[in-house]
Every structure is written in structure tokens, then in C-alpha cells.
Description:
alpha+beta; globular
Amino acid sequence: MIKPNLSANPINANSDPEINVLSRTRVFENTVFSVFADHIVDKNGHQVERYLSVVPNCLLEGAIAGVAVLPIIEDKVGLIRIFRHPLGKESWEAIKGHVEPDEDVRFSALRELQEEAGFLVTAEELIDLGAVSPEAGVIKARTRLFTVIVTGKIASVVDGELGHGELAFYNTEEIDNLIANGEIEDASTLVILLKQQFKQSELKRSERKNEIRK
């Protein structure tokens, strides 16, 4: 096998070019987002005259614009059935929502969990799983991910939001089937499910190591 000469390959020569905004025009705005047409250029001279940039009107530190929360009962995770208007189809998703100005991100998660699912928990009960950038090529936004055990907690009745259906809890096999059938496609939901599985695997490995030491 002939090995490629990577030093002579121009593809990776400038893998992270700086980009400058030469001009920015606001083309749309609502209460949540502002949409811009940017004229941008990198240090190699590549440019796009009308690059679409979506910027949330509220951003917390670290470009956090929203939260996603995965409630857990025993070994099952809770997802909401939501009809997504742009796609014209239903999707099973984690509980999600936008942050508010000057709001602590954990409070954002608590608020969304109560508003969309009716569960009342404390900030100390939330498990932080980091963040995800749903569409970094277009939207200046990251979503902070949390899980929380709600076993034994009673959910209050909620009014629901536009397009929202029921909340249902699924085990790992059922989640795998929903993903395989294309019923879970939301990026934040897929990442939080994956991170939750990693966390469970780590806990099981830790438990096995402790048993061996005993």
C-alpha cells in the first residue's frame, strides 16, 4: 500500500481559517431569533456574500441558548412526542426550551421540566452532561444537556405547547428501535441519549471494579 504524503496534501493545510465579517444585514427577526445575511471572508480569500447566520436574541455564557432535559424513571427515559411544523412530521424528543435573560442554566432546565412535563425537582438533582451545538454551521447556539431522576415524583398536569403530545418513558431497547425507525432524529435528543448511555456504562464498570476489590 502506498502511503499518501500528508505534508504535500493542501486539503489540511488550513483546517481552521479565521473568518472576518465584512458586512451584516438583518433580514428577519422575531422574539427568539435574529437572522442575518453575512458577507464573510477567510484569511485565504475564500468568501461568501450572503452567508445565513441565525443568532438567538438571548445567549448565556458559552453561547448557551437552550437546555435539554431527560427525565429518568428507574431504567426508562422520558421523551415527548412533538409535531415539528418545518418537517411536517412527529418526533420523539427530550424536554427542551430556550433560556431567559440572566437566568441560571440549571434554573432554565428546572423551568422547562416543570412546564413541559410537570415534574418539580431541585437544581442539586440535575446531572450535567455538557453541551451540544445543534447546527454550528448556521446557528450561534449551544444546548446544555441534563438528566434527572424523577422516580417517585408525581407530575402535575401541564397545558402543553404548540405541537406537543404525550410524555412516554422507554427502556434502552425501545429507544434503539425508535432511532432505527427514524422516530428520534433530533440532534440534541440523540446526543443526550448517547451521553446517558455512556454514563450508565461508566457506572456499571465502576460498580464491577468495586465488587472485584471487595
